[in-house]
Amino acid sequence: MYQHRNWQGALLDFPASKVVCVGSNYAKHIKEMGSATPQEPVIFIKPETALCDLRQPLSIPRDMGAVHYEVEMAILIGSTLKQASEAHVGQAIAGYGIALDLTLRDIQAGLKKAGQPWEKAKGFDNSCPLSGFIPVNQFAGDPQQCELKLVVNGEVRQQGSTADMITPVLPLLAYMSKYFTLHAGDVILTGTPEGVGPLHTGDKLEASLAGHGISTRVL
Fold first, then answer.
1. What are the tens digits of pLDDT across the range 18-37?
2. Residue 32, SS3?
3. Does 3.90.850.10 match the CATH number of domain 18-218?
4. What residue spans define the domains of the chain?
């Protein structure tokens, strides 16, 4: 069973809960997907059962078409946010980490074409591999100005900066809290830069945020 941990692997006293995600939050990723830039953030939710430990080998579906990686900065919520101001949001962030927003891309394409919700493509079991979290007071530098990178089999596939988010962290969380109360233990995924692509059995991955790296592989 998944439990939140810090970057060193120690358990954190936060319950595992929902994951609230934003799509289309980096302009170059929007372009590579052939999508239109949204007028406001595109929000979707992954259930608790999507959470798994990024440090462990990844188990992906075998019979549902292509499974794509999307590396993202993850945020751990430390206190309740409801109809929150940006100032309140800043005080409620407990830590920063790395996530993979795994996506059943063929299924998502069909759902988009039919105008249906994305949950089957985004919220399946183990679709949110998650690192431990670096506490806010230990995170060096500005989380809104840091490199986000994914290397697959020794090749850089995704490399961007959190500075390129269309909707930055504080206004993004404030926006989310208008619709969903965010509780301690909730996780926010903040969008992915360009370079997404399929995973295959045996792939070796290294994801990093602001120089903090974590490795895993696909079973």
1. 999 999 999 999 999 888 89
2. helix
3. yes
4. 18-218
Distance CA 217, CA 186 (A): 25
pTM value is 0.96
Q: What would you report as the CA-atom Rg of the chain, rounded to the nearest whole angstrom?
A: 16
Contact by Cβ (8 Å): 167, 72 = no
Cα distances (angstroms) measured from residue 76 to each of 147, 174, 179: 18, 14, 18
The H-or-E segment that residue 149 falls in is: strand 147-152
Q: How confident is the model at residue 164 (pLDDT cuts 50, 70, 90)?
A: very high
CA triplet 202, 121, 36: central angle to 5 degrees?
110
Q: How far apart are CA 3 and CA 30, in angstroms?
A: 32
Number of Cβ within a 10 Å radius of residue 42: 16
